[in-house]
Structure formats: C-alpha cells, structure tokens
C-alpha cells in the first residue's frame, strides 16, 4: 500500500481548514453529476413527474446536502477515531489537523464510492466500509509521522 510521504503530510496540514472543505465539496459535486443523470433517468413516483429544472432543484437542495453531510459525518467519525489513537500514542495532534488530513486522504474513497453507486448500491455499501478501513489504516500510519508530546 502506497503511504503518503512525510513532507507531503506536513505540507497538506498547513492548509487552512476551508481548503479541505472546499476540496471535498467540489469532489462530491463532481461525483454527483453521474448520480444526478442516473436518478433523473431512473426516477419513479412523484419524482419522475418533475420537469428537469424542478428535479435539479430537488437534487441540489434535498439529495446533495444529505449526501454531502453523510460523507462529512463519516469523515468526522474517522478523524475522531484517529484522534483517539493519536492521544493513546501520545502524539502532538489536534482534531482539526486530523480532520484536514482525513479530507485529503478521502479522494480515492469518494471517487470510488460515486462509481460504485452507479454500479450497485450493495457494492457502494461494501466500498464505504472498505474506504473507512483504508482511511483508518492510512491515518493511523500518518499519526506516527508527528512527534510525541513533550512532558
């Protein structure tokens, strides 16, 4: 497994908190384009009767925020688990630093999740758990790049 280099981790960690949020938001918007098309083509019931502009409003204000918040929530949970590991390992890290690193490490999992959603929802659920495990492994390895707390 290819792990990020120490210098790259420190460089990404210097970014302001808005940058990872924007990065993940743009990545999620990119992933949602094929989902938008598939949902519009395969919609049933009341949603199927909506015109394209109304469906776009529905997608933008209902589907996308729920999707984005669920991804941000999973990232927050992963960062919290890694933060606990960092505290147990007595490393000099804050939750905010780990959340930023989680956001940048989530690139492959987010793109893979979007692609797996297009194939099958069961595959997407499996991909989500594999992605969480992947993030935990990568980030737990990364916390050991940082120095121990001075006593």
TrEMBL record:
Superkingdom of source: Bacteria
Keywords for this protein: Membrane, Transmembrane, Transmembrane helix
This protein's record includes keyword Transmembrane helix: yes
Entry's transmembrane regions: 21-41, 61-83, 95-114, 126-146
Protein name listed in UniProt: DUF1189 domain-containing protein
Species: Shouchella xiaoxiensis
């Amino acid at each position: 497994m290819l792990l990020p280099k120490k210098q790259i981790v420190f460089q990404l960690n210097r970014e302001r908190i808005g940058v990872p949020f924007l990065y993940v938001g743009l990545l999620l918007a990119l992933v949602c384009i094929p989902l938008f098309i598939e949902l519009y083509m395969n919609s049933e019931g009341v949603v199927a009767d909506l015109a394209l502009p109304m469906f776009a409003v529905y997608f933008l204000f209902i589907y996308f925020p729920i999707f984005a918040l669920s991804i941000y929530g999973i990232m927050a949970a992963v960062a919290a688990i890694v933060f606990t590991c960092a505290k147990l390992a007595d490393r000099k890290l804050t939750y905010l630093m780990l959340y930023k690193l989680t956001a940048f490490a989530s690139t492959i999992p987010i793109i893979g999740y979007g692609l797996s959603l297009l194939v099958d929802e069961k595959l997407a659920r499996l991909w989500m758990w594999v992605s969480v495990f992947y993030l935990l492994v990568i980030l737990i390895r990364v916390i050991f790049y940082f120095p121990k707390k001075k006593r």
